[in-house]
Amino acid sequence: MAQSFNPARYAVLIVEDDALVRAEAVDLCEEAGFTAYEARNADQAIRLLERHSDIRVLFTDIEMPGSMDGLKLARAVRDRWPPVSIIITSGRVKVEKEDLPENGVFFSKPYPPQGIVKALNDIAAQIFN
């Protein structure tokens, strides 16, 4: 018998420098049943990844202050934490499939909330299968 799906068993790390957009993304993830951590930049995100082994999804904006943008963060996460799935968003930068890390997903802002929830549920289904 298949293991029952419980999204709260893993966490989403939301990396977004705009506080309002970040809060909306956290609400979206939590309403869908996922645990959410939040960071304003890549440096904070790396520290959270080092402390929380339950993080299984990186949900990051591309443009942000700090030592690296969202694409560089995504590549670093792919190299250091291979099981972490990656969702990248941007309101200005268009990302082609070949620019994404392996198995990465891109959404243009404003992203459709139901599209994000579906992507999270698809990732969760892969984790638990």
Order of secondary-structure elements: EHEHEHEEH
Shape descriptor: globular
List segments where confidence is low: pLDDT < 50 over at least 5 consecutive residues: none
Q: If classified by CATH, what would the architecture be? A: 3-Layer(aba) Sandwich
* Assigned CATH superfamily: Response regulator
Please explain how this structure is put together:
The protein is of the alpha/beta class. The chain has a single domain, classed as Response regulator (Rossmann fold), CATH 3.40.50. It contains 4 helices and 5 strands. The chain has a 5-stranded parallel beta sheet, sandwiched between helices. Helix 1 links the parallel strand 1 and strand 2. The N and C termini lie close together (11 Å). The model has no long low-confidence stretch (mean pLDDT 89).
Briefly say what this structure is.
The protein contains four helices and five strands, in the order E-H-E-H-E-H-E-E-H.
Structure keywords:
129 residues, alpha/beta, Rossmann fold, 5-stranded parallel β-sheet, 4 helices, 5 strands, 38% helix
Annotate the secondary structure layout.
Elements (H helix, E strand, L loop, with lengths): L10 E5 L3 H13 L3 E5 L2 H10 L3 E7 L8 H11 L4 E6 L14 E4 L4 H15 L2
Parallel strand pairs: 1-2, 1-3, 3-4, 4-5
